[in-house]
Amino acid sequence: AVSLLSQLEKRLEKIKSEGLENYRHRYTTLTSKIRNGLKEFGFEVFAEHPANCVTGVLTEKYDASEIVRIMREKHNIEIAPSGGELKTKFFRVGNFGNITENDIERFLNAMKETLKELEQ
After folding, report:
1. Nearest one of 48, 46, 66, 49 to 57, comparing CA atoms
2. What is the mean pLDDT of residues 25-36?
3. Residue 70 burial class via C-beta count within 10 angstroms: exposed 0-12, middle 13-18, buried 19 and up
4. Phi, psi angles (nearest 5°) of residue 80
5. 51 has pLDDT over 90
């Protein structure tokens, strides 16, 4: 697990250079942009008190498994599918790591195109 320790060391260096409060604020802001964008599409953010590292998304209107497939195949964006009874109703969006506002815009634009395709 040397590579994991190396990654952790780099991440901690970044947090230290940015400052912990600035780091937290940035992730809170970026996460809000993702969630607000998803809500504008009519999705429901699942958790009552969600963490800033992942967003669970509930959908009754669209097939969640098709959203995951189209985002992967046509937009090269990975979102996490669910299985079992939730396969067509729930997916997760990771919003932690090295994401930027440009990444979020790309994600939301791809989601918009995906939903248009599903409505045809």
Report:
1. 46
2. 92
3. buried
4. -90, 125
5. no
What tokens were used for 19? Answer: 């400052």
Q: H helices of 1-120, where? A: 2-18, 20-40, 64-75, 101-119
What is the rounded average pLDDT for all residues in the chain? 93
pLDDT for position 45: 87
Sort residue 107 into left (φ over 0), alpha (ψ -120 to 50) or beta.
alpha
Q: How many CB atoms lie within 10 A of CB 32?
A: 12
- In 3D space, the residue among 114, 119, 111, 117 whose CA is nearest the CA of residue 55 turns out to be 111
Would you give the distance in Å from CA 116 to the centre of its chain? 19
